[in-house]
Amino acid sequence: xxxxxxxxxxxxxxxxxxxxxxxxxxxxxxxxxxxxxxxxxxxxxxxxxxxxxxxxxxxxxxxxxxxxxxxxxxxxxxxxxxxxxxxxxxxxxxxxxxxxxxxxxxxxxxxxxxxxxxxxxxxxxxxxxxxxxxxxxxxxxxxxxxxxxxxxxxxxxxxxxxxxxxxxxxxxxxxxxxxxxxxxxxxxxxxxxxxxxxxxxxxxxxxxxxxxxxxxxxxxxxxxxxxxxxxxxxxxxxxxxxxxxxxxxxxxxxxxxxxxxxxxxxxxxxxxxxxxxxxxxxxxxxxxxxxxxxxxxxxxxxxxxxxxxxxxxxxxxxxxxxxxxxxxxxxxxxxxxxxxxxxxxxxxxxxxxxxxxxxxxxxxxxxxxxxxxxxxxxxxxxxxxxxxxxxxxxxxxxxxxxxxxxxxxxxxxx
Length: 414
What we know:
single chain, alpha+beta, Nuclear Transport Factor 2, Chain: A, 6-stranded mixed β-sheet, 5-stranded mixed β-sheet, 11 helices, about 30% helix
């Protein structure tokens, strides 16, 4: 995989060039040894005095504070595909423990699931080219300083031995600055998707690539400051699959015997015939629902999907081509990450028709039933598309937020 040469911020003095400072690491190790000896002495005193010490609330109950945090997993998840299993443990740590750990302890913990050369690709936040860069100076550090506290609800989570993906929504308190936009000091929600690549070495699978994208346009609209023209369709709606496959869906034990071959064929047809072609894949069920991003909205029939989603894209992007970076299925659930290329010949989402060749990065998920998509989800890298035309979506947002007056939410929107 080609990795671009990128600049990233450095968390000083803990990290330099993506590596933990040796002197600082030595100092921390000494403190850990002193604290460990103190803890043992404390336990002995309590025991001799006839006192019973309360158990630690973390799943790491050892009194040695540098031991790695280990999630307790329901046995139903045993036997999951390798990369999916890795992400389940990684996400459990991020949601249950990471907020309580010091930066260096967090780094020690995430190395259980991420390779040293972990590459973090994202929209808006800094790209990172190492696990230390992501954990101590990249998106993880920036995100947690902006939104505090936070929680996430996964709607989709599936994968294979080498691939995994999630679609979730976050419930966050927007406390501090985000890309120059002041913290709004209020609770809000946003939609986010992740794609992961895993590799196995010496019998251990870890993640070496992660792409993450937040629907920033919808976050800004939801907060009262839309940066894109309001969609004809209802905006802000995103739900789990309309099937009892678990939440997040699907549970591996339920889909192991389902036909992933026909699901893959249906998803490939949708990509090539609907997004590249004129929308004649005929691979959507009669009662389909498509959960589009901010600026596009939710289509609740194929007619709406064709007229309000596909046709505007077909009109805007001429000479379309497609390259897919990741594409895979678990059971009847499929996902694709890639780029739609074309010449922008018609206005779309507030962008002028420049005729320029551009690339629209996409992240899509489908639930396939009997060869047709019953549910579809999609996010697009709108900030990246704006950048290609010399425009800055976040600058537009800064100006909107500085204006002061909020735009009331429409009744049909969430």
